Amino acid sequence: MNPTPRQRFEAAIDQPDAAIDLVAAALCIAQETYPDRDLSPCLEQLDAIAATIAPRLPAERYPLRWIQIINQHLFQDLGFRGNTDNYYDPRNSFLNDVLERRTGIPISLSLVYGAVAQRLGFPLEGIGMPGHFLLRPQVDAMELYVDAFHQGEVLFPQDCEARLQQIYGMPVSLKAEHLEPVSQRQFLARLLTNLKVIYIKTGAFTQALAMVDWLLLLHPDRPQDHRDRGLLLYELQRWQEAYPELTLYVQYQEAQGLAGNQAQDLPVIRRLLETLRSAL
């Protein structure tokens, strides 16, 4: 029997973080939504994009010049763009859709950009800035960032602060941790969290629950994911399954409360558990 997408995903992440293949893991996530579609051409497409760019690159690895050439092909020749018309379309987060439609959100376009750059021997690391996502060349003493959502625009730290203020529509101070690189697991968790939020906003609770289940493959013990799983199961009226998830969350928060770190949502979850007890 062939392994399921989730089984392949578990195998992909069951290794040191730096060895995780983001493209392979992202395709596992997409495969569950598109079970009857062959997604292997996505790898061929990324290979073809990199093969077209490679002869245009100068022998000297000047980061700004390489970025300019990658940008030219991805955004000018191929027409990749940030989806400003329908930002919360789930297709913006599935790699096969992003490659087919050539549109996406910051993290999915960064995935494409980073995958192409990796094939060219130009490694980039993901930067999980609040409300946005950037890439940074892995070059010593190189404080520049690439915004794949905005046509590969090159940003310096002061530009990142301006972008942050633009996103939030108010003065925001950029902190050093805002420009810290994310791990491969954090990258995948952010991709899945985006999908979870999109599905919750549209009331697609079954799909949102699936995203939480994927998140729990990455971080089995993360309490907020068990809480969200319980809340979604409650919305789906799967109360017997919701009860232990919410109980687990309350137990964790009560233990944290001993150290003064109790979550503010704990009273709400306790009341919900009381409602469930009376219904079961």
TrEMBL record:
InterPro entries: SirB1_N, TPR-like_helical_dom_sf. Residues 43-192 form the Protein SirB1 N-terminal domain. Transmembrane segments: none annotated. Pfam families: TPR_9 (PF13371), Transglut_core2 (PF13369). Belongs to the UPF0162 family. This is Protein SirB1 N-terminal domain-containing protein. It comes from Prochlorothrix hollandica PCC 9006 = CALU 1027.
